[in-house]
C-alpha cells in the first residue's frame, strides 16, 4: 500500500466502501455482448454495498490522523446517507411501467406489472415526502430548465430512485439504518446490481466525527465533516483506470481471503465543512479539486444537492 502523505489521504483511504465482486455467468455475458456491453468486467450487489456500511454505521469508521507535534489519534466518523440517484436504461424498463410516476401504461393495468415496476413507480411518487430536492422541482436560477425538458432530453437515463436528505444532522439515522427503512418502500435498493445502473448513478455519504482514541480535550481541528461522492455503476474495460468515480480493485482488503474478488467505490468528489488548515494543510489543493469535481458532476445532472449547497456556503 502506498504511503499516505496527508490526513485527507488517510480520511479518503479509510472511508472507501469495499464490496465483494461478482462474476457474470456465460448466459449473462452473451446477453451483455448482444446488448453491446461486452466490455463490462464484473459487478456487485447493492445489498453488499449497504452491508459494508453496517459496522461503520454502528461504531464509526476509524481514520488515523497525525496532529501537531506528530501526535497520532484515530478519529471515528459515522456515515449518513446524504444523496442518492439510480439511473437505468429506459429501453430496459418493463413495458408496463409508466415512464413517469402517475402516467398510465400502454398495456393492461394491474396484473401485467411486475413487482419491481410497482416499486419503481412507488419510489418516485413517495420520495417527494422523504426528501426529494432536484432541479426537476426547482429550476436553475441562471437558466430556463424545466421538468418537461428533463424528461424529453435527459441523456443520463431514466431516474428510478432519488433521495436527498434535508434533516438536520443530529436527527438523521446512520446510513445502514436509513437504507433499511427506504428499502421497505423501494425493494430495488436491495435487489439491483451495479451492472443494472448507468454511470450517472451516484451516492453521497455525509461523515460526521463522533469520538477519537485516545480521548482527550475537545479539539476544534477535529470538528471537520465531509461529503464523499461515489459512482455506483459497473466500470468498463475501455475506460481508463484513473477515471474518477470508477470501481477499482482493493489494496489489502480481503473477502474470503481473495483480494482479487473485491471492488472499492472510489471517491470522485468531496465537500468539507469546518475544514481547518492546521490539520488538513497537505489536502487543501486536493480538497478544492474534488469539490470542483462534485460541483461539475451535480451541474451536469442538473440536480441540487442540499448538503453540498450547505457545505459549500458554510465550509471553511
Search tags:
316 residues, alpha+beta, 6-stranded antiparallel beta sheet, 3-stranded antiparallel beta sheet, 11 helices, 21% strand, DUF789
Tell me what you see in this structure:
There is one protein chain. With 316 residues, this protein is of the alpha+beta class. The protein has one domain (7-87, 163-314). It contains 11 helices and 9 strands. The strands form 2 sheets. Strands 2, 3, 4, 5, 6 and 9 form a 6-stranded antiparallel sheet that branches. The model is unreliable at 96-153 and 237-259 (pLDDT under 50). Residues 104-117 have a biased composition (Acidic residues). InterPro entries: DUF789. Residues 95-117 are annotated as: Disordered.
Arithmetic mean of pLDDT: 75
% residues in beta strands: 15-25%
Tally of separate domains: 1
Overall geometry: globular
- Helical content stands at 25-40%
Label the structural class: alpha+beta
SSE succession: HEHHHEEHHEHHEEEEEHHH
In the predicted model, the low-confidence regions spanning at least 5 consecutive residues are: 96-153, 237-259
Rounded to the nearest angstrom, the radius of gyration is: 20 Å
- Structure summary, number of beta strands: 9
The description of the largest β-sheet is:
6 strands, antiparallel
